[in-house]
């Protein structure tokens, strides 16, 4: 049996939120990280992704499945369940994501400064 996902896996002020390098939508990279150690159920994914609604998680999982990064497996039986897991293609993203996360960590202060400057009141928008 796999260990449960850490509810604090994603810090609300995580460098991944500042990274301009994204896979899919806002949540896709975090979903991929949640599936890194093996298949998970929908309810398990919601634990560390506490800011996501069920509707948005469903949409993100469907997009990842459509793109060939995640496999959805329905298990029949007395207690039917659905598991989500990374495909080999999805697993191949883990290395590039590690590089992007490390880049965000190294550039954290510059990213924060740029984000704050971009949010300054009265700044002209292009």
Automatic annotation (TrEMBL):
GO molecular function: DNA binding
Glycoprotein is among the record's keywords: no
Keyword annotations from UniProtKB, A to Z: DNA-binding, Transcription, Transcription regulation
Keyword Lipoprotein tagged: no
Signal peptide: none
Family matches, as InterPro entries: HTH_HxlR, WH-like_DNA-bd_sf, WH_DNA-bd_sf
HTH hxlR-type domain: residues covered: 14-112
PANTHER family given in the database record: HTH-TYPE TRANSCRIPTIONAL REGULATOR YODB, TRANSCRIPTIONAL REGULATOR, MARR FAMILY
Name of the featured protein: Transcriptional regulator, HxlR family
Lineage: Bacteria, Bacillati, Actinomycetota, Actinomycetes, Micromonosporales
């Amino acid at each position: 049996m796999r260990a449960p996902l850490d509810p604090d896996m994603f810090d609300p002020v995580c460098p991944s939120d500042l990274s301009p390098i994204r896979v899919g939508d806002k949540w896709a990279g975090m979903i991929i990280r949640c599936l890194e150690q093996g298949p998970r159920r929908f309810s398990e994914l919601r634990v560390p992704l506490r800011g996501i609604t069920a509707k948005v998680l469903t949409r993100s999982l469907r997009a990842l499945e459509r793109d060939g990064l995640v496999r959805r497996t329905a298990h029949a039986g007395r207690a039917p369940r659905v598991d989500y897991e990374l495909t080999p293609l999805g697993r191949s993203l883990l290395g590039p994501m590690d590089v992007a996360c490390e880049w965000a960590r190294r550039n954290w202060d510059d990213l924060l400064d740029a984000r704050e400057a971009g949010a300054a009141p009265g700044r002209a928008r292009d």
